[in-house]
Write a structure and sequence with these properties.
two-stranded antiparallel sheet, mainly alpha, Amino acid/polyamine transporter I, globular
């Protein structure tokens, strides 16, 4: 039977009627879930990575580009969610319109979006929690708060900064300092952002071995089989806590999320208003730093860097997508899900742009902390009381982001297991008391904990963005196909100027994919090939649409 077989629209509505999930979410509850997912990963985490490594002060442009690409996809999602108000998100939408293989591939890539998204947030949560402990005088060893790669990089960077700091005492000018540093074997890329001794001094400050030793109880990395060993313990602990909350039930998760969202929005407004008084406009120049290529051949800054940064921060916009995965638990999904999708996106896009301008104005982009940029920016202006407030809010805020990400992943797996494409006993069985897919939740929690403990945040976030961008492009195509194939379907919400919106959505999302680093593309292709193999080896013959499987549970 064809791999393009489609699940009838009537079957989705039948599934929705048979669903055992509790319908407790209002339109503002859904909007709160969207804001809970959107605010956090972008503002509290990826602003540091994207500004420090790729866009500089032009990060605001990156957020605008990502927001535009996201808006087109959001409008298409809104129409789909009004037609098919079931859990499964883009996977479900594609299954009813394009075909099974197309839907499977989207579902497979949504694993990157949600599971790797939750992993990224777990690592970021660890960075803020580490900073929070430090505020109370509690320090962890370097090897217990970072993955192996990040721990080694921190140690190496601190050693380099110490050497440069020592050289500054005997260097009369910048050219002499650079020449002496290069003779010592220090990589030239360290000098790419610097033009004067003052620039060097600003970057070296607080980043030497002495500073690293003050931050951690120990900077020694234990050896395991001849390799330096480290693992991110806080990231593992928060994953366990969130997994427990989600197993308990959606109502408990939603209540927790609503409270945290109020705290987060209040703190984000505080960052924008308070930070505006400490902006040094000199930090915005050059607004678009000169393009450079490092020793590994990776490009940074310039317009290419702005594009790469946009593809990275795009991860932070997937909150509206998470709204669509909760349709099975919405009281009035046909009206409330489209409303929540558009509203959460509009609110958060504006906040992102403002925060990125404030942060890069408060602190030079090349010294922004990549794990806890907001807290580090306020620490740099001598406002320790604000650091307490922001760090506590970030820890709480990132918890809610992670909660929504993991919630979305389990509901997508639930939808796929109902269709027979994944084992129902693992991914589709609900807890008899809590009515949650508890086995799937625990399984996902274990994977996230392992990856978060051992993987650098930038690698995980880029893979997440790739999965998201492809899924958004495919949704734009699928909603257009459905409009042509079944023009008479009841559509409580219709995307305006669909041919234009869908076309621009595909172009914008594919353009952002083209800016992702080549190494991420290789990993993404391997992941895609693996997904196709799983489909043909397991999912195709176990599908409910496969001959003989129609009545199987």
């Amino acid at each position: 039977m064809s791999v393009w077989r489609r699940k009838p629209i009537d079957a989705f509505h039948a599934d929705a009627k048979k669903s055992e999930l509790n319908r407790v979410l209002t339109k503002w509850g859904l909007t709160s879930l969207g804001i809970g997912a959107i605010i956090g990963g972008g503002i509290f985490t990826l602003t540091g990575i994207a500004a420090h490594d790729y866009a500089g002060p032009a990060l605001a442009i990156s957020f605008i580009l990502a927001g535009i690409a996201c808006t087109f996809a959001a409008l298409c999602y809104a129409e789909f969610s009004s037609i098919l108000p079931v859990e499964g998100s883009a996977y479900a939408y594609s299954y009813g319109t394009v075909g099974e293989l197309f839907a499977w591939f989207i579902g497979w890539n949504l694993v990157l979006e949600y599971m790797m998204g939750a992993t990224t947030v777990a690592v970021s949560w660890s960075g803020y929690f580490e900073k929070l402990l430090g505020l109370f005088g509690i320090r962890l060893p370097l090897w217990m708060a970072n993955d192996p790669v990040t721990a080694s990089e921190k140690l190496h960077n601190a050693e380099v900064m110490t050497k440069i700091s020592n050289l500054m005492a005997s260097s009369a000018d910048f050219i002499t300092l650079k020449a002496q540093a290069l003779k010592m074997g220090i990589e030239e890329t360290y000098f790419a952002h610097w033009k004067t001794l003052e620039d060097v001094s600003k970057s070296v400050k607080d980043h030497t071995l002495a500073d690293l030793q003050a931050h951690y109880s120990s900077i020694e990395l234990p050896q395991l089989f001849g390799f330096s060993f480290a693992f991110n313990l806080p990231a593992v602990l928060i994953t366990i806590i969130v997994t427990y909350i989600l197993v308990k039930g959606i109502k408990e998760a939603a209540k927790t999320n609503n409270l945290i969202v109020i705290i987060k929005v209040a703190v984000v407004l505080f960052v924008i208003i308070m930070g505006a008084f400490y902006i040094d406009t000199n930090n915005w120049f050059p607004f678009i730093p000169e393009r450079i290529v490092d020793a590994k051949g990776v490009g940074h800054f310039g317009w290419g860097g702005i594009g790469t940064a946009a593809s990275i921060v795009f991860f932070a916009y997937i909150g509206f997508d998470a709204v669509s995965t909760q349709a099975g638990e919405a009281i009035n999904p046909k009206k409330d899900v489209p409303f929540a999708i558009v509203m959460s996106l509009m609110i958060c896009t504006l906040l992102y742009i403002l925060v990125s301008l404030v942060l890069t104005g408060m602190q030079r982009y090349d010294v922004l902390d990549t794990k806890a940029p907001v807290a580090s920016a306020f620490a740099s202006i001598g406002q320790p009381w604000a650091v307490y407030l922001i760090t506590i809010a970030a820890v709480a805020g990132l918890t809610s982001v992670m909660m929504v990400m993991m919630l979305g992943q389990t509901r997508i797996f639930l939808g796929m297991s109902k269709d027979g494409l994944l084992p129902r006993k693992l991914f589709g069985q609900l807890h008899p008391k809590f009515k949650t897919p508890f086995r799937s939740t625990v399984f996902i929690g274990v994977i996230i904990a392992i990856v978060a403990a051992l993987t650098p945040i930038d690698k995980v976030s880029e893979m997440c963005s790739m999965g998201t961008l492809l899924a958004f492009s495919m949704v734009c195509i699928a909603v257009w196909i459905l409009r042509v194939r079944e023009p008479n379907l009841d559509r409580p919400y219709k995307t305006p100027y669909l041919p234009v919106v869908a076309s621009l959505g595909v172009i914008a999302n594919l353009a952002l994919m083209s800016q992702v680093r080549i190494g991420t593309w290789y990993a993404f292709i391997i992941w895609g090939v693996l997904g196709i193999l799983v489909y043909f080896l397991y999912s195709r013959k176990h599908s409910k649409l496969h001959p003989g499987n129609e009545d199987k549970e």
